Amino acid sequence: MQVIRVASESPQVFELCAEQQAELAWRQREVVDDTPKHLDPRISFLLLHAGEEVAGCAGLQPLEPGVGEVKRMYVRPAHRGRGLSRRLLTEVEKLAAEYGMRTLRLETGRLFDEAIGLYTSSGYRPIPRFGPYAECAESVCFEKHL
User: Fold this and answer.
1) What is the mean pLDDT of residues 103-110?
2) 27 SS3 class
3) Which of 1, 101, 111, 125 is most buried, judging by how many CB atoms fall within 10 Å of its CB?
4) 3-state secondary structure of 108
5) In CATH, what is the architecture of 2-145?
6) How high is the pLDDT of residue 71?
7) Distance between CA atoms of 45 and 61, rounded to whole angstroms?
8) What is the dihedral of CA 65, 67, 72, 76, to 10 degrees?
């Protein structure tokens, strides 16, 4: 396994984000395309390689001084069940620490038990919905102090 940093404009990031959004829409039985046409250039992305294949990604977006948000965390279905999501999350936390962030926040859907389990078992605690998720009843938000 190898983790590399890439810019938000990376074609591999867009490919993974499109796959993520298609899966989310299917799981939520919605026809919603939230695939980004462009991503905030402030987001630093990590790609996780399993051999020659890109297995997943995660992004880190600054929110305010000392605070960042985990964005677009995704592991391809063929690579799940091997701890790769936890590895990505750990790498995002290391990156946040390098950037001087002391707190990480994130959002996921209330129906995604696997994601909620990962975040809570990794030390993230529920918080009120924040920012663009404040009015979204399907969202649950978490925070961890590093």
Assistant:
1) 95
2) helix
3) 101
4) strand
5) 3-Layer(aba) Sandwich (3.40)
6) 94
7) 9
8) 130
